[in-house]
Design goal:
globular; four-stranded antiparallel beta sheet; 4 strands
């Protein structure tokens, strides 16, 4: 049996559901980013992400969604870097108030331009964190 099948058998039912949801969300976001002009994608994403905020999820539930997004992104044979992952997490956590999608550029004049996207709640980075040796300058907040 492959490692994926063995791992699939070992995870809980709720984790399987979150993993499938994350995978489907990532694929739809990847397709949307590929075929739609960015301004149109942004409007569609905003419309789909509308939600009446409900009570906050606890940190364990948020961590499970982040795990599902990162795991699905690593399994799906598409290039799913920081932006699709951040968008998927933002969509799947749309009922969590005060999450912001941040987009920034690396502050390092010795390296070529590099952008990055991450999700933040308050001062905490939910998905898309980076090592201490890298610094990003926030350019845009997508609320």
């Amino acid at each position: 049996m492959s490692d994926y099948v063995l791992k699939w058998v070992d995870i809980s039912g709720s984790a399987k559901i979150k993993l499938v949801q994350a995978g489907c969300t990532l694929i739809l976001i990847k397709i949307g980013l590929a075929i739609l002009p960015f301004s149109t994608f942004r409007k569609v994403f905003h419309w789909m992400s509308k939600s009446d905020a409900k009570p906050d999820l606890n940190s364990k539930e948020i961590s499970e969604v982040v795990w599902a997004v990162n795991t699905a992104a690593n399994i799906i044979p598409l290039e799913l870097l920081c932006l699709p992952r951040a968008l998927a997490a933002k969509y799947l956590l749309r009922k969590v108030p005060s999450l912001s999608l941040e987009i920034g550029v690396e502050v390092n004049h010795a390296k070529p331009f590099e952008a990055h996207a991450w999700i933040q709640k308050g001062d905490e980075i939910i998905i898309g964190d980076w090592s201490n040796s890298v610094s990003y300058q926030r350019l845009w907040v997508w609320e």
